[in-house]
Amino acid sequence: MLTGKNAVVTGSTSGIGLAIARGLAQQGANVMINGLGNPQENEAIRASIQADFDVQVLFSAANMLKSDEIAGMIAKAEQAFGSVDILVNNAGIQFVSPVEDFPEDKWDAIIAINLTAAFHSTKAVIPGMKQRGWGRIINTASAHALVASPFKSAYVAAKHGIAGLTKTVALELAEFGTTVNAIAPGYVWTPLVEKQVADTAKARGITEEQVKQDVMLKAQPTKKFVTVDEVAAVAVFLCSDGAASITGTTLPVEGGWTAQ
Length: 260
Description:
The protein is of the alpha/beta class. It has 8 helices and 9 strands. The protein folds into 2 domains: 6-187 and 227-259, 3-Layer(aba) Sandwich (Rossmann fold); 188-224, no CATH class. Belongs to the short-chain dehydrogenases/reductases (SDR) family.
């Protein structure tokens, strides 16, 4: 479905981002993945996607806190692939604290990585998408783009901002064959969440199953974690011709959380 298209997926060496990168590659898109961490592990991830799906896969270590590195990542992808047709803004971090105790550096970093980075990468890809008359921009939001939870002020503010950015850019690009949408997952089962289950169980003196059902999944009526493959499937669909008239939306993938 996406043969001949080229994608950049930020924050894509694990979890949701990696699943989206693999989903796009499976459909024939060349992909640039992005992340920090161990260079050898990142190279292994890059090579495995390329081998599994026989597409060109590049890696960028661009730091999402630095606008010049973000612009450089997009320029590198355009030079190597010839275009960036699909952009997935997925990089994100979290920190939990009451507002009065929230460290200012944590606030600044969460807003920068979860929101401002998406602005910089989006700004960089728009000229090419407008020129070619085709593009797909997908932002990983969260159920917290639609509702709030206590102690997550920076994250909720950033994700609400992503929803607003999505709508605005969608309107600006509506006549240029380019759609802009956000996906709003609930609790997604990732290695990071799996570790949090064990840590929370130990800290609270309860079982891991109690953590899952009574703490993490309390807000999700299905009482099931969203899978990374479910989120990736939505991203792939948004890149399809069948989704050409879906733009400016924030699509909940959260087991009914925001229906309550």
